[in-house]
Amino acid sequence: MLELAATEMNLAEAEEEVVRVDETIAHLDDVSSRILKREMQALSVFDSLPNKQEIALSNQDFMWNSAPLVQ
């Protein structure tokens, strides 16, 4: 019985670790997306693209206009 309880605890800990890893991956994906968007804006990449392509690349939930640009 103790082995079953220990196994269940180990499984719960592993599941929590998976959730933490998934959250970290989502955060890193968001950060890298914002970095890429700022770099592309700084290089004026979007000036030569149709609006439809820019929308496909952007995250509509993020306020891109407030992102700082490096000149």
From TrEMBL:
Residues 4-31 form a coiled coil. It comes from the Eukaryota. The keyword Coiled coil applies. This is Uncharacterized protein. Keywords: Coiled coil. The keyword Coiled coil applies.
